[in-house]
Amino acid sequence: MDKELFKLVRINDNSECRAYKFAKTPNYSIGVWSSEPDKVVWVDKTTNFDCMIVRSYTTGTLCGYVGVPATHPLHGTCADELIVSPQVHGGLTFSGKCFEGASEEYCLVCHTPSENGEVWWFGFDCAHYCDVAPMWCGMFMDKKSTYKDIQFVTKEVEELALHLLLQQR
User: Fold this and answer.
1) Is 34 helix (H, G, I), strand (E, B) or coil?
2) Could you tell me the strand order of the sheet in which 17-22 lies?
3) Domain segments of the chain as ranges
């Protein structure tokens, strides 16, 4: 794997919400995604869970993640083993810890740990039927296809964080 493909450049100075863009721009078509960050990392103020949005380098679609601390009862649980699955776009498609050997400056599921320490991530992607993928814009689409933008994915991440908070009680 060429790690340089996944290298990011920080585009803001806000310590509460860190945003990044790809250092090497992928060959996506031009669209609303062109002005969006490719990775955003923050701690949700309502739940105090680590949150992240990462753009898939291969498709250009966004993926959303919420990290639960080691004290959470679902920490270490596989997404498909959850008894009550959250209602996020396309369902949960990922669970796991940060990618080994990576850092927040890469477009992978990895971040600089908050006060929560190392977390267990639950995530979803926006590369399903009727989702527009910047890499394949115009292909595999019908009239109902829409691009799931940063605002949509942020809302879904916040809903997932709330769902995971309720599972803690």
Assistant:
1) helix
2) 8-10, 17-22, 39-43, 50-55, 62-68, 120-125, 94-96
3) 3-167
Q: What string of DSSP letters covers 36-70?
A: S-SEEEEE-TTT--EEEEEE-TTT--EEEEEEEPT
This prediction has a pTM of 0.86
Distance CA 150, CA 42 (A): 14
User: Residue 162 has which token pair?
Assistant: 């709330």
Taking CA atoms, 21 is separated from 8, 33, 165, 168, in Å, by 5, 11, 30, 34
Task: Tell me the two tokens of residue 114.
Answer: 């908050």
What amino acid is encoded at 39 in this protein? Answer: K
pLDDT digits (tens, 9 = 90+) for 85-139: 778 887 888 999 887 766 666 667 777 777 778 899 999 998 887 777 877 765 5
Report which of 55, 167, 54, 52 is spatially closest to residue 119, judged by C-alpha positions.
Answer: 52
B/e letters for 19-36, b = 16+ CB within 10 Å, e = fewer, are bbbbeeebebeeeebeeb
User: Which residue from 49, 86, 83 is spatially nearest to 69, judged by alpha carbons?
Assistant: 49
Other CB atoms within a 10 A radius of the CB of residue 62 amount to 31
| DSSP 8-state assignment for residue 160 | H
